[in-house]
Every structure is written in structure tokens, then in C-alpha cells.
Amino acid sequence: MSARLLLIDDDTRLTGMVGDYLRQAGYLVETAPTLRAARERLEAREPAIDAVLLDLMLPDGDGLDLCRQLRAQARTRALPVLMLTARGEPMDRVVGLELGADDYLPKPFEARELLARVRALLRRSSGAPAADDAEVKRFGRLEIDLGARIARLDSRECELTSYQFQMLAVLAQQPGRVLSRDQIMDALKGHALEAFDRSIDVHISRIRAAIEDDPKNPRRILTIRGAGYMFAKKQDGERD
Fold first, then answer.
1. pLDDT score for 72
2. Alpha carbon of residue 204 to chain centroid
3. Is 206 exposed, middle or buried (0-12, 13-18, 19+ CB in 10 A)?
4. Strand ranges (DSSP E) for the chain?
5. Which residues sit opposite 103 in a β-bridge?
């Protein structure tokens, strides 16, 4: 079945053009011009929304508030969110990612780039794991269930977005190996323009907040200065 997208933006000209383009690409597109309308649609569970395209500047508030709300609720925590906004300053992008957005596309943008990012978001969030990946990996007190797409620390589920879980899985499937930012993006099968310079760093920071005992002194995901990141083979005092 076609994925259903919710496009939240008060620019009727843009939503008309973007909506038509995405529909031609095979998606079902619904629109909401305000935060209130978006919340009402998201509270109606059927038919389910598969991804949200969210503008930050809306008539009745800031899209960041909705993003924060989506990530605070278990039902919508893993819902893919792509931010669309004219606020293109790097710090705005960092804030959006820190609040749980999966990707960020500043206006004006090319329709083809938007489509590529939507496809990548949906692929990461709903792609079934390969047969040899359908297993549970354990590293000390951390458990990563690749089939269920859930990480648990001390048997308690970690709060991760779909994108963040996928990034964690990429690192955990190659423990002890240093992965550059480019290698991580390639493993995620992302589009070359899906990340600006700090996006991976921000996502890593959020993952650490979920799985590390002390995110400021990480022991699971290590930064290898000038090279990238490495997932520790042995954790919580494990021995060879």
C-alpha cells in the first residue's frame, strides 16, 4: 500500500505543488495548515500516517512544539519527521534534530530532493531487516533487538526515533570498527544531501542520552577524533 504523508504548512501554494508532486510519485498526501489541524489528524489513528513533513513557522505556533510532543508520546515516538522551513540557520537545524526530527530541508528546495528524502525516511522506518539481521544483539546491559527495532537498557526500552535506532544498529553490527560519518550515511542508504555537517553528531548525542549511563562520558559509542565513531565491543565490564 502507498505510504500516507501529512504535510503541515500554511503556504497553500506550496502544499498544492508539493502535494501534487508527491501524489504523482505514488504517495497519499494529506495537508494541515495549522498545528491544531495537524494534532486533530494525528489523534485520529485511522488511516495511519506514515511520515510527517513539518513546517516550523505556523499561524498558531512553532512546529518544534509539535515535534517535541510527537517524541514524548509512545504511539508517535518513531513516526518519521522531516522538517521543512525557511529558517535555515545551522542552529535551528540542530535544535530540530535534538527535539527528534529525523531530517531537515530548508526552503526553497528542489522537489526531487524532497522526494529522495521522503523515500529515505520511509525506507529506514519501515524496511524489514534482512533474515540474518533478525536477531537480538547483547552488549553488557544493552540489548538491541534488530527484528523489533527496539533497544533496551536493563530491560527498559530506550527512547529512540526510527532513524536513531537505525544508526545505532549500523554501529552495533560492526563493533570495534571505526566508522566515518560518510560510512554511516552510506550504511543508512541515505541521500548525499540528507545530512548537513552536524546532523550525525546531533543524532549520536541523542542516542547516547538514551543508552549511556553518563552521556558526557560515553562507554558504548566512542568518538574517535578525526575519524568517526566506534561501538565498543565489550561493555559493562565484559571480558573476552
1. 85
2. 11
3. buried
4. 4-8, 28-32, 51-55, 57-58, 61-62, 81-85, 103-106, 136-139, 142-145, 150-153, 156-157, 178-179, 221-224, 228-231
5. 82
C-alpha cell belonging to residue 7: 504535510
For residue 108, whether the previous peptide bond is cis, meaning omega lies within 30 degrees of 0, is yes
Q: Are 63 and 54 in contact (CB under 8 A)?
A: yes
Terminal CA-to-CA distance of the chain, rounded, Å?
47
Place of cell 494534532: 39
CB-based contact 11:34 (threshold 8 Å): no
The residue type of 34 is T
Find the length of the chain.
Answer: 240
CB contact at 8 A, 66 and 54: yes
Q: Which three cell numbers stand for residue 51?
A: 511520515
Contact 105, 81 (CB under 8 A): no
Could you give the C-alpha distances from 51 to 27, 123, 126, 167, 193, in angstroms and in order? 11, 11, 11, 18, 19
Give the Å distances, CA to CA, from 31 to 24, 69, 80, 199. 16, 19, 16, 27
Please tell me the number of Cα atoms within 13 Å of 176 on its side-chain side. Answer: 5
pLDDT 10s digits, 41-78: 999 888 999 999 999 889 999 898 999 899 888 888 88
pTM: 0.64
Would you state the cell numbers that stand for residue 185, as one nine-digit string?
Answer: 550515511
Per-residue HEC secondary structure of 116-131 comes to HHHHHHHHHHHCCCCH
